[in-house]
Design goal:
InterPro entries: Rv3654c-like (IPR021202). This protein has 122 residues and is an alpha+beta fold. It has helices at residues 18-41, 43-65, 73-83, and strands at 87-94, 97-106, 109-117. It has a domain at 43-117. The termini are far apart.
């Protein structure tokens, strides 16, 4: 054995434990980034839910407006939109055409999607 290998560890003074503090700071930063990413990424399915609910609600309202189904077009749209996890903001019927707007909230994000269904525009 050499004299250097058996030498006692040198005195680090005020740096003792600094590695643990740095690891804690890095871990907290990674945790904060992960939580932020999860919140932002959760917005994508909510937007898709709003879009799908708006399309389904407009189609249901147009079916009633065209006489394929009995009832009130906007009540049917509200029923279908609610079943798809959204809330109906607006419903407009003009002849056999239905235009709806739905709303979906996901954390701090709010999505409002419109949709139209009916005969092709002229």
């Amino acid at each position: 054995m050499s004299a250097e290998a058996s030498a006692p560890p040198r005195n680090l003074g005020g740096e003792r434990g600094a590695g643990g503090v740095v690891m804690l700071a890095v871990s907290l930063l990674l945790l904060a980034l992960t939580v932020g990413a999860v919140n932002v990424l959760s917005a994508f399915p909510a937007k898709q839910t709003a879009h799908a609910a708006a399309d389904a609600g407009a189609l249901a309202a147009a079916d009633v407006a065209s006489g394929l189904k009995s009832g009130d077009p906007c009540e049917e749209a509200a029923r279908v939109v609610t079943a798809n996890g959204a809330s109906l903001e607006a419903c407009t019927i003009s002849g056999r055409e239905a235009v709806v707007r739905v709303r979906v909230e996901s954390g701090p994000f709010v999505f409002s999607e419109p949709s139209r269904a009916g005969p092709p525009p002229r």
